[in-house]
Amino acid sequence: MITGVPEGWPTDEAAARAVQDALRDRVVRDETGPAPGTGTVTGIDVAYDDARDLVAAAAVVLDAATLDVVEEATAVGRVAFPYVPGLLAFREIPAVLGALKALRTDPGLVVCDGYGLAHPRRFGLASHLGVLTGLPTMGVAKNPFAFEHGSLGQERGSAVALRDGDEEVGRALRTRDGVKPVYVSVGHRVSLAGVCAHTLALTPAYRLPETTRRADRLCRDALIDLSARP
DNA sequence: GCGACAG
DNA sequence: ATCTTGTCGC
């Protein structure tokens, strides 16, 4: 079955920006979720089949201490919004909500692909998902988008401020020695220091968090299963 | 106006 | 995101 779009979901860019402006003040920057390495952590990701206007979302719950998979869920929906830089949430969140709703386990901390407060209006995908669900969330992106940062050490754990002008909106964080950093930011109910700690706890072997890697694989597989049996 | 621009 | 071959290295 196909996940629908939430009531009142914006249809155009102006309406979408208005939604961001209306919700941005609800973001909580304090650490009120599970501590790094405790409870559960859930990876979220989405894959597209533009030709058929379909989107598959995946949610993978891991035990934060062992990184073992506790539960997996997927949801399929229609593409709800075009890709517009700064409005990614409107494209991905409807299907993601479907996958989260299918879980029986408490998601704990939700790790998103993309940004939270590191956003032109300080309300990226991770923050938006957090405010909508009330869950603690954080963003881990592969690219710095339009933000700037100075150089950082080559060792895993090195970090430097990700800036929008003079404001620190996130961090560039090295998760593997000598490998390109990831770009992390607060989503909801986490602190920036906490985001870095959680990210390092999720990257014992690869540049990207285990949550992201598992969710990425699952939503791609879900899309393939869909092609095999339309 | 032009280019850049999370996924 | 997605389209795609080989290739260097542990």
TrEMBL record:
<comment type="similarity">
    <text>Belongs to the endonuclease V family.</text>
</comment>
<comment type="function">
    <text>DNA repair enzyme involved in the repair of deaminated bases. Selectively cleaves double-stranded DNA at the second phosphodiester bond 3' to a deoxyinosine leaving behind the intact lesion on the nicked DNA.</text>
</comment>
<dbReference type="Pfam" id="PF04493">
    <property type="entry name" value="Endonuclease_5"/>
</dbReference>
<dbReference type="GO" id="GO:0004519">
    <property type="term" value="F:endonuclease activity"/>
</dbReference>
<keyword id="KW-0227">DNA damage</keyword>
<protein>
    <recommendedName>
        <fullName>Endonuclease V</fullName>
        <ecNumber>3.1.21.7</ecNumber>
    </recommendedName>
</protein>
<keyword id="KW-0963">Cytoplasm</keyword>
<keyword id="KW-0460">Magnesium</keyword>
<feature type="binding site">
    <location>
        <position position="113"/>
    </location>
    <ligand>
        <name>Mg(2+)</name>
    </ligand>
</feature>
<feature type="binding site">
    <location>
        <position position="45"/>
    </location>
    <ligand>
        <name>Mg(2+)</name>
    </ligand>
</feature>
<dbReference type="InterPro" id="IPR007581">
    <property type="entry name" value="Endonuclease-V"/>
</dbReference>
<keyword id="KW-0479">Metal-binding</keyword>
<keyword id="KW-0378">Hydrolase</keyword>
<keyword id="KW-0234">DNA repair</keyword>
<keyword id="KW-0255">Endonuclease</keyword>
<feature type="site" description="Interaction with target DNA">
    <location>
        <position position="83"/>
    </location>
</feature>
<keyword id="KW-0540">Nuclease</keyword>
